[in-house]
Amino acid sequence: MLKGLNAIVTGSTSGIGLGIAHVLASKGTNLVITGFGDAAAIEAERVNLETKHNVKVVYSAADMSKPDEVKAMVELCVSSFGSIDILVNNAGIQFTADVQDFPDEKWHQVIAINLSGIFFAIKAALPHMQAKKFGRIINISSVHGLIGSTHKVAYVAAKHGVIGMSKVVALENAGSGITCNSICPGWVHTPLVQAQIEANAARDGISVEQATENLLIEKQPSKQFATPEQMGELAAFLASDAAAQMTGIALPVDGGWTAQ
Ligand code: NAD
After folding, report:
1. Are 204 and 211 in contact (CB under 8 A)?
2. Ligand 1 interacting residues, C-beta cut-off 6 A
3. Is the pLDDT of residue 1 over 90?
4. Check whether domain 6-188+227-259 has CATH 3.40.50.720, yes or no
5. Is 206 exposed, middle or buried (0-12, 13-18, 19+ CB in 10 A)?
6. Catalytically annotated residues
7. ipTM for the whole complex
8. What residue spans define the domains of the chain?
9. pLDDT at residue 260, as a whole number
10. How far is the CA of 231 from the centre of ligand 1 (A)?
C-alpha cells in the first residue's frame, strides 16, 4: 500500500519518530531519518532500518530550528528518491517552568523547533507534492495541542499552533491529493517523558516507579502508555488511500486523556 513511497520522519533517532520510521519502513517506504544523537548509533539504526525492511534510508542532520537546513532536508529526500510523498513532522522538545519564570531563549527554542520548523518543512515539501498531485503531511502535535497543562506554556502554544497550521494546509490543498493531519499523543514512554518523570521524582522525593505511576494516574485514564508503534500504525493509515478524505483533523491517541 505504501510500498515505493518516499518519506521524511523528523526526529526519528529516538522515541515516537523511531517507531514511526520502523512502521513506515515495514510497509515498504523509503526514508529520510533525522535527529540528534551519537553518530555511530544513528548510522547503526539507519543500516538496521534498511536491512530489516529492505528499503532505502538516508540520514539528514538538519536542525529543525534552522530553516535552511530544513529546506535542505526536503531536497535530500527528493534528490535521493525522486519525490517526497509523506512528511512526518515529529521532532520536538519540552521545557517546563511557570510562565513568569519561563526563560525567553527557551520560549524561542521551543517555538522554533516545535512550530516554525514544521512550517518550513511543509513550505519546502508542498511544491513537490503539488507537482505530483499526491502528498501526506502528518504532524505530531499532542494532547497539548487540544488542552493545556501547567508549566508548559511554549509547548502548549506550539502544539495548538501545529493543529491550526495543519487546518490551513489542509484547506489550501483540499481535493488536490494532498492531506494534512495531526496526531495528538497522550503519554508515550520515550526519553522526552522519562526526563519529566525523573524531574517529578526528584521534586517530590519519590521513586521513579512511583513517579511513573503518578504521571499516568494524573492524566491518562487508561493508566497505560501509548506506544511509538501505535503512532506509526496511525501515521501509516493516514498515509494510505483509505484516509484520502481525512484532512485537517487532529486525532488523539491518549488513553482517554482528552475525553475527561
Ligand atoms: P524524544 O526526545 O524521544 O525524541 C525527539 C526527537 O527529536 C529526537 O530524535 C531528537 O534528536 C529530535 N530533535 C530534537 N530537537 C531537534 C532539532 N532541533 N532538530 C531536529 N531534531 C530534533 O521525544 P518523543 O517523546 O519521541 O517526542 C516526539 C514528538 O512527539 C515530539 O514532537 C513530542 O512533542 C511529541 N509528543 C510526545 C509525547 C510523549 O508522551 N512522549 C506526547 C505527545 C507528543
Report:
1. yes
2. 10-11, 13-17, 34-37, 63-65, 90-93, 113, 140, 142, 185, 187-188, 190-193
3. no
4. yes
5. middle
6. 155
7. 0.99
8. 6-188+227-259, 189-225
9. 96
10. 13
